[in-house]
Write a structure and sequence with these properties.
heterodimer; A: mainly alpha; three-stranded antiparallel β-sheet; 3 strands; 3% strand; B: alpha+beta; five-stranded antiparallel β-sheet; 19 strands; elongated; FtsW/RodA (chain A); transferase (chain A); RodA/MrdB (chain A); peptidoglycan synthesis (chain A); cell inner membrane (chain A)
Chain lengths: 381, 625
């Protein structure tokens, strides 16, 4: 296979040449759809969402390219400190975090509002990848080799769930679990683990959820029971999507969205608005766009020679895929309403940065896919 | 080592492939659900979307106006600024009212009323907080609307009566439909909609009401109207105007002329039967009822002994007293029991068995013929006439002239407004006693059990004046009125007519000195006084010093009556007027009745020139006396 024989590019020009430009194009396309939709949300105005989304996307895009250019050894060396830093910030949120809509999610650092759970998504991926990169593959399924990943995953997930931000907690936890699976955990551990996981999940829903979260889960199971309460969002979202039909009501013609029947349409429910205005064709087009991005991610992961880059790529890919899946499934009433945005299309700064940083890592992995660093200290490049 | 690595890579790729397959499955699931929603269930959700998006708002029809015979406005609509509250959007109603009270005054009573109304109204239905809000307050509330969720300002129409006192009884008023009437009708349940509750407003309600329209509107998730879609709306059909036969100028004059007396008047066009004046005093302000009258003010009105809420003109019943003497005379002439020139000598009283029947003039009138008897209102003469006629023949003629008839003029009347003209059968059924000559005597001078409304007295006057079966109406007739001739000789009508002219224009007439004529040059009038006894002063009271009506409390004093018509040469307008407890008719009723009649004559559309010329035969004014 030619990829294995390719040299690892060293200088910037070679790296730029190696950049997966098709992937970059898909990302830009997605960001533009976001701008288009946020322009519509405001009723045909750049203000307040579209223009800020565009500038954030532009900044994030540059971050993505910079991240792609940085040699992977830098990420490896940053993995543990970043993780510990993010963990510290999560504890700080728990202690001093700003409360918004009943949840503590932000830290105000001077003028900047930091959402540590977003940093943690990247940091966890890096930390786990680094750990497995350094761990001999035969030790992956030993008790000693399992305790660290379990702690590395459980600590942040627990802190995020306590904020409470169930969506991010599930997303972060699932990413970690997929990475452990991809790292080569033995089926002998996985099967009993899944059984225990299902049991634990049921117990968690029963006893570990806040009242409003339980209500959401119950409402999800039967939204028509509470058409004006917690089920309202799901019903209105389905009405908006369903009434869009095959070709939609036309750009900026989405009555459900524009008459405010649709909640939080600039963030979590933007896909609904897209589906209402562009119909099934538009919705499928966006899903295909994401699928193409994810396909590129999978190809990159499989092309990588190093465990670190493989796992980083798959970690980011899993997070990205879960964003898309949970968000779209949520607005269609397939999963409970949890606050998960649609990557690069939903309005929101922290998520945009997280996603584009992650995609930068994947682009970097693509550039450095042929590199085969030894275990231990990061010696890429 | 290399094999290990390759094995690890292979395992990773296998598992990545599995994860990818899971991802493909998940995306397929999403796509399938999207297909289900947008393709398979599209129609279903499109309907739900339309239901979200559009809603029908009821559009209130403009209520028709009520106009007088010359097109003057009696009832119309003016813009009214209202403030509603919708609980669904307001959240806690008490809090919403607190917020609103920063910009407008909300009294404790109103606050309680609104909270009570809110509690029993569906969440999405607006409840009136205030109506008839002044412009300043209204615009202030509008300005601060963003801070006042659930508050809905609205400009609507409210019924207004520019001549409130004059038309309170005739036009009536409108109010919100009470729940038992409103039922489930969304129009009637609308807080701004009013239905007729009395008078013309209730009698012609369906006509005045029009029909509601429906306005298709686009609403947002909070129920706020974003856009109106007039092409898909049905316009409200405004109500029709209703024209009355009343002359509002004269009506207003009559109401003022009667002033604070407890009195009523009915004026008819004797040719057409059209009611040109119908007033009852004291009156009230129907505008108060439209917006909801405070209970204290209503109690004051309801408990007032002068009964301002009661339309005395059609529902008040009084003994007609001497005003009936023309009727008795016509009966006597028809049956030949009394020749016009035949004289009866009045000595002040007549003995009948052990009872003494007095003439109002204690010293007696001496010998009087029919003309004089009417002119001076001699009771003795009519005792004699009545005894010769007998009750049956009196009653027959009285009924022909309108007694005992319920004239439906087109506004709600009480069932007893038909009055009463007694008969032996009636007396037996009522008291178990037989009819006596004394009863006939009493009926002969319009006392006893005889009861008539001012409307009936006006009809009686019109029939005496024209000899035709005039029927009253409050609404203009289509085409000329053709009333059947009553079965009286012209000569008899003429004789009675001349006697009534004599009452006013001949010395000795009961109204000669007090009126001195109509007060319009070249136009003479006919009239008849009446004093309806309410309480008879007993000998014992007389001994105690209660000598006259003025010594009695108001509610025991006699009613004063006066009927009249003019021009005497060609009768056009008839007026009947009753002043409750006003004392003698000559004193209390004659002047206001004459003034109102004069007003009618002066305002007659045909003009004064037409008045004098109309009569075919010249009248011999020298006759009688």
């Amino acid at each position: 296979m030619p990829v294995f024989t390719q040299p690892v590019p060293r200088d910037l020009r070679a790296k730029l040449f190696e950049l997966n430009w098709a992937f970059v194009l898909l990302v830009v396309l997605t960001g533009c759809i976001g701008i288009l939709m946020l322009y519509s949300v405001a009723g045909g105005a750049w203000d307040p969402w579209a223009v800020r989304h565009a500038s954030r996307f532009g900044a994030g895009f540059l971050v993505m390219l910079v991240v792609a250019m940085v040699p992977p050894r830098l990420w490896m060396s940053l993995a543990y400190p970043a993780y510990l830093g993010a963990l510290f910030l999560l504890v700080m949120v728990e202690l001093f975090g700003a409360t918004a809509m009943g949840a503590q999610r932000w830290l105000d650092v001077g003028p900047i509002r930091v959402q540590p759970s977003e940093i943690m998504k990247i940091a966890l991926v890096l930390a786990l990848a680094r750990y497995y990169h350094d761990l001999p593959s035969e030790k992956v399924s030993t008790p000693g080799g399992m305790i660290v990943p379990v702690l590395v995953i459980a600590l942040p997930v627990g802190l995020i769930a306590k904020q409470p931000d169930l969506g991010t907690a599930v997303l972060t936890g699932a990413t970690g679990v997929v990475m452990v699976f991809l790292a080569g955990l033995s089926w002998k551990v996985i099967v009993p683990g899944m059984v225990a996981g299902v049991a634990g999940g049921i117990a968690f829903i029963r006893y570990g959820l806040e009242e409003y979260q339980r209500a959401r889960v119950m409402t999800f199971l039967n939204p028509e029971n509470d058409p004006l309460g917690a089920g309202y969002h799901i019903m209105q979202s389905k009405i908006a999507l369903g009434s869009g039909g095959l070709t939609g009501k036309g750009y900026m013609q989405g009555t459900q969205a524009h008459l405010n029947f649709l909640p939080e349409k600039q963030t979590d429910f933007i896909f609904t608005m897209l589906g209402e205005e562009f119909g099934f064709i538009g919705g499928i087009a966006v899903l295909v766009l994401y699928a193409l991005i994810l396909g590129h991610c999978l190809m990159t992961a499989m092309a990588c020679r190093s465990v670190f880059l493989r796992l980083v790529t798959m970690g980011v890919t899993t997070t990205f895929a879960l964003y898309v899946f949970i968000n779209t499934a949520m607005v269609m009433g397939l999963v409970p309403v949890v606050g998960v945005p649609l990557p690069m299309i939903s309005y929101g700064g922290s998520v945009m940065l997280t996603v584009l940083t992650g995609l930068g890592l994947i682009l970097g992995a693509h550039i450095h896919r042929a590199a085969e660093p030894p275990r231990g200290a990061g010696l890429f490049g | 080592m290399r094999r290990d690595k390759q094995e690890a890579q292979a395992q990773f790729n296998r598992r990545t492939f599995m994860v990818g397959a899971g991802g493909v499955g998940a995306f397929a699931g999403i796509g399938a659900q999207l297909y289900t929603l947008q393709i398979l269930q599209e129609d279903e959700y499109r309907v739900l979307s339309d239901n979200n998006q559009f809603s029908f708002r009821i559009q209130l029809p403009t209520r028709g106006r009520i106009l007088d015979r010359f097109g003057e406005t009696i009832a119309e609509n003016r813009d009214s600024y209202r403030i509603y509250l919708i609980r669904e959007q307001a959240g806690d109603p008490a809090l919403a009212l607190d917020r609103l009270s920063r910009y407008m005054h909300i009294g404790e009573a109103r606050r309680e009323r609104v909270l009570r109304d809110l509690a029993r109204t569906p969440r999405f239905q607006p409840v009136t907080i205030a109506e008839g809000v002044d412009w300043e307050t209204f615009s202030r509330v509008n300005l601060h609307l963003p801070e006042l969720p659930g508050v809905m300002p609205d400009v609507g129409e409210v019924r207004t009566y520019p001549m409130p006192a004059a038309f309170a009884h005739v036009a009536g008023y409108v109010q919100s439909a009470p729940p038992e009437i409103a039922g489930d009708d969304p129009l009637l349940r609308h807080p701004a909609f009013r239905v007729g509750r009395s008078g013309v407003e209730i009698a012609r309600d369906t006509e005045l009401r029009g029909s509601a329209g429906s306005l298709k509107v686009e609403v947002n998730a909070f129920g706020r109207v974003i856009r109106e879609l007039p092409d898909q709306s049905r316009l409200a059909q405004p109500g029709r105007d209703v024209t009355l036969t009343i002359d509002s100028e004269v009506q207003r004059f009559a109401t003022e002329r009667l002033g604070t007396e407890s009195a009523s008047v009915v004026g008819l066009d004797v040719q057409t039967g059209e009611i040109v004046v119908m007033a009852s005093t004291p009156s009230f302000d129907p505008n108060l009822f439209v917006l909801g009258i405070p209970s204290r003010e209503f109690r004051d009105l309801n408990e007032n002994p002068y009964r301002p809420l009661f339309n005395k003109a059609i529902n008040g019943l009084y003994a007609p007293a001497s005003t009936v003497k023309g009727v008795i005379s016509l009966a006597a002439l028809r049956h030949g029991v009394m020749r016009p020139g035949e004289r009866v000598t009045c000595r002040g009283s007549v003995q009948l068995g052990n009872r003494r029947f007095h003439c109002w003039r204690r010293e007696g009138h001496g010998p009087v013929n029919m003309h004089d008897a009417i002119k001076v209102s001699c009771d003795t003469y009519f005792y004699e006439v009545a005894s010769r006629l007998g009750i049956e023949r009196i009653r027959e003629t009285a009924l022909e002239l309108g007694f005992g008839q319920l004239f439906d003029v087109g506004i709600p009347m009480l069932s007893q407004a038909g009055g009463l003209f007694p008969s032996p059968q009636w007396k037996r059924a009522r008291t178990g006693q037989g009819w006596s000559m004394g009863d006939t005597y009493n009926v002969g001078i319009g006392q006893g059990a005889v009861l008539a409304s001012p409307l009936q007295l006006a009809v009686m006057t019109a029939r005496m004046a024209t000899g035709r079966a005039v029927e009253p109406t409050l609404y203009p007739r289509r085409g000329p009125a053709q009333f059947a001739r009553l079965d009286f000789d012209d000569a008899h009508i003429e004789a009675v007519h001349n006697a009534h002219v004599g009452v006013v224009h001949e010395p000795g007439g009961t109204s000669y000195w007090s009126l001195g004529g109509l007060g319009v040059e070249g136009v003479r009038m006919a009239g008849k006084t009446g004093t309806s006894q309410v309480y008879s002063i007993s000998a014992e009271e007389r001994a105690r010093g209660v000598r006259s009506q003025d010594d009695l409390p108001w509610r025991l004093r006699n009613h004063g009556l006066f009927i009249c018509y003019a021009p005497a040469e060609a009768p056009r307008y008839a007026v009947a007027l009753v002043v409750e407890h006003g004392g003698g008719g000559a004193r209390s009723a004659a002047q206001p009745a004459r003034d109102i009649l004069r007003e009618l004559i002066l305002r007659d559309p045909a003009g004064r020139s037409g008045i004098v010329a109309a009569r075919h035969e010249p009248i011999n004014l020298a006759q009688g006396g």
